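User: Could you check the structure of this?
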Amino acid sequence: MRRRKRSVQLNNRWGSRRNRIFFAISLTLISIASWLLVENTEVKLNQYLVAATNISSSTPIGQANLTSIPMDLGDADGQYLKATEQNLNKWVLVRPVNAGELIPMSAISPAKLSSCTQIVVALAMSMANTVKVGDSIDLWAADQSSSIESIPVQVVSAGELVSAKLQNDSFGQSAQSIEICISPAEIRSVVSAIARKATVVGIRSQN
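Assistant: Sure, the predicted structure tokens are below.
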């Protein structure tokens, strides 16, 4: 009886120890499997270019007006400009992009295919504060004449505002100078207005 009882006790101890070892091994295997699952499902982020400021169309792409952020765009991966893109200066925006926006591939074009011309025009009066870079602007010109009534003529339709700045003249009055992107067909009208020293006014386009 004593031998049988001792044998039972030894078997119980061995069974208990064996269960603990099996349990420990199981936990280890579960931990390894969980780690491998996390590693395999970890999202791979790519660096994408984002506009650092409002950028108008016909502006060359460059590091000065862009920054990069890591993102996972999934199926849209190829629809936006990546930071790994080489020779950024060969690209030009074909439409404006606001600060903080990704650069869509559909918004850029090779620089040699750019279709509008940038020109600087001095305005007789400042535009509204709500007008910002990238907005479409109409320019109207009227000849300066005190004896003959001058009818204003629209010289630019929906030109894109590239930049705007205020300058003070010798009398302390502020005058706004803008850089605007216009079609080649409108260059003659704008240059003619400048040559005549016509009064030029810019307003947001209603188109």
